[in-house]
Amino acid sequence: MKRNTIQRSLTLEAVQKLKNHPTADEVYEEISAEHPTISKGTVYRNLNQLADSGEIRKMEIPSCPDHFDHCCHEHYHIRCLKCGRVFDIDMDYISDLEKSVKNAYGFAIKGYDLVFKGICPDCSQALENRADADAKDSVNNKEKEKCE
Amino acid sequence: MKRNTIQRSLTLEAVQKLKNHPTADEVYEEISAEHPTISKGTVYRNLNQLADSGEIRKMEIPSCPDHFDHCCHEHYHIRCLKCGRVFDIDMDYISDLEKSVKNAYGFAIKGYDLVFKGICPDCSQALENRADADAKDSVNNKEKEKCE
DNA sequence: TTCTTAATAAGAATATATACTATTAAGGAA
DNA sequence: TTCCTTAATAGTATATATTCTTATTAAGAA
Q1: pLDDT score at B130
Q2: Which of A102, A108, A112 sits opposite B115 (nearest CB)?
Q3: Is residue A82 a contact partner of residue A119, using CB atoms and an 8 Å limit?
Q4: Residue B99 pLDDT greater than 90, yes or no
């Protein structure tokens, strides 16, 4: 039988508090600030269990660590190619996109992942500012930044 | 200036030969069977360079290692949730999906990643066969399998 | 209160990918 | 052709994300 542990409650609360699609690591940091003994493996396990039970949503995004979302309505996201942050996007949800599939070669389709990609306002601004500076440095810095 | 190295040619040839969206590791295994001294880092670097120059396509898929595709026309893919393999899917390509976005909050949209998910015919068959056997074992085996 | 065992903490292990560094070799110049 | 510059390589180390392992703890039933 499933047990209601303190760690499980803390994990759920942290995701609900951190509204910006936190990664498992960000959830762990949030919790461990108050409860330093919690284990990162526990956070990972509880996040996945909470996602399995539908209490939170697990967002699997290409070339990114998994992000978790407290939000309950289906919506799309956009990932900044430069800083890696993930944001909500405002667009009607396409619930029957699999009907557009002509041939899935025997696959039982369970859904789809759709993530837009682009450059966020912050990074656009930073790029413009740097355009005056050394172009090479700008490229190097850009390449260095990681997906958070 | 860009140099045409043997390793670069081997990498391109391997992707063109392996038509099933190989991962970098699969490309490395293919090449190293004939050329055991090639370095995995070299394969990664050349795959990314070839993708940057448009000679191959890099497929970034959630919860999967990157896959590489020799194919040149835009098309969608489906990932098996059980075995992790990636297959082509037959569906009209939506080139202007970003026009459906109502509000991207200042983002400059550069494109999108769309990947369907489902259960492939092989895994459907395997699940049916196992349904007669112990259900618990079936679930455990399912959880164990990794994205390839 | 006791007991069973699910869940945990801590850290090792794994997977994917990139970075570092001494060495090699591609291709232009002499 | 031979030499030279330096991009690319091999091999190793490192980074990142996540899962696994194992002894211990504690949730909740009896």
Answers
A1: 63
A2: A112
A3: yes
A4: yes
A2 CA: nearest nucleotide by C1': C6
Helices A6-17 & A24-34 angle (0-180, nearest 10): 110
Residues of A whose CB is below 8 A from B124: 106, 108
Asked whether the predicted pLDDT for residue B59 surpasses 70, the reply is yes
How do the domains of chain A map onto residue ranges?
1-72, 73-148
Question: How many residues are present in chain B?
Answer: 148
CB B44 within 8 A of CB B66: no
Average pLDDT of chain B is 86
Q: Which of B44, B45, B78, B143 best probes binding to A when mutated, by most A CB atoms within 10 angstroms?
A: B78
* Fold of the CATH domain B73-148: Dna Ligase; domain 1 (3.30.1490)
Mean pLDDT of the region B34-54: 96
Q: In the numeric block, which tokens belong to residue B105?
A: 């909050």
Dmax over CA atoms of chain B, in Å, equals: 62
* Architecture of the domain spanning B1-72: Orthogonal Bundle (1.10)
| Residue stretches of chain A with pLDDT short of 70 | 130-148
Beta-carbon contacts of B103 under 8 Å, excluding residues fewer than 6 positions away, are A89, A90
What confidence score (pLDDT) does residue B126 get? Answer: 77
pLDDT at B2: 86
